[in-house]
Specification:
Elements (H helix, E strand, L loop, with lengths): L4 H24 L17 H11 L10 H16 L2 H6 L1 H15 L18 H14 L11 H7 L8 H12 L6 H6 L1 H12 L2 E5 L34 H4 L9 E5 L2 E3 L1 H18 L21 E8 L4 E9 L2 E9 L7 H15 L11 H20 L2
Antiparallel strand pairs: 1-2, 2-3, 4-5, 5-6
Helix pairs in contact: 2-3, 3-10, 3-12, 6-10, 7-8, 13-14
Amino acid sequence: MRLKNRSIVQIAITVAVIAIMMVYYLYINEYIDFKLLSIGDVNPYGGWSALKSALTDVSYRYRGISNSIALTIAITISAFLMGRFFCGYICPIGALQDFFKHIGNKLHIREKKLKTWKYFSPEMIKYFILVLVIVLSILGLGNIVSPYSPWVAYLNLFLGFNIKIGFAVLMSISVVSLFVRRIFCRVFCPLGAFQALLSAIGPSRLERGQNCNGCTHCLKNCPVHIDRPKGNEISPECIRCMECVNTNCIKGTEGYSLKFGNKRMNNKSYVNAALVIVIAVFILFPLIGSRASNEAFVQIEGLKDGLYTGTGIGFGGSINVEVLIEDSRIKDINVLSHSETTGYYEEVFRTLSKEIVEKQNPNIDAISGATTTSRGFLNAVKRGISQALEGK
């Protein structure tokens, strides 16, 4: 069986993500001393987190475009220009759902359609979730919804088998995908809702040919089950799989075609252009105007020997640390308790602890993609050191 171009891209991206996470696992467990990317670097909500911090946190300092911010920008630009390409070709959760639906088809599991009503369809739910996530994030309560993220759970599968609520959500999505097409993308994904909104106002669209009689044969394999488009254009819910464009019309007429402005694009040009946009922005933007900290790392003097504790507020709540001072130097830092997200805190605690001990100063840069956790940890260490300066 010959794989479709979309399947090839999905498999390639999935393999790359798995490889990146396996390298990261070796890194945070100190088997190797380098990483490719961290979970925080491939967090598609990183740009929003940075924007929110810039607007609401007086202690926020701009350090340049991180990988996570670049990913958010890449998704935003591609969604506006090319529609939900990220959903259809790149998102590993989308690929996972497609895989399980394929298995369901092979097992001849009867497909279920989502019920719709006159004024409501299940696809509307994700827009309410998007608003809820934004509101909770602004209020500093993003940690309430973070544990439910199948995205974080998926990435954490390759950092150790942790059965938490996010894993349960991920498994539920996989099981339901055996008989329902793209349940998460269509109904629950806030990132999908964000992209659909951008796609609705963007310059590209899937448009029905003038001679098409609307039989919808070309839509029978639509991954998001768009079966009865209203009007001549496909809904922004479309993930741009191009299945309807590539399917030959059984009536012998012109079916759907992709247009960018007034110009038609073929499948190959569309996929290549969209891939270039996403990959180029993700790789190049962090290199533009990146700036390291200009703070002078002057060693702190006058520390009193002893064991001191400090508390800071991270993404999930309080971070309590213990700072050991020996011979008037910072000897060791241990985290006593925290509620940070798995996959994010490991690098923060290990890397920042080592850097603080090496430089004998807690005024160091946060870890890209885990800024809130980093600030909470650094504030906790600073409070412990301040006690050592006071001799308490």
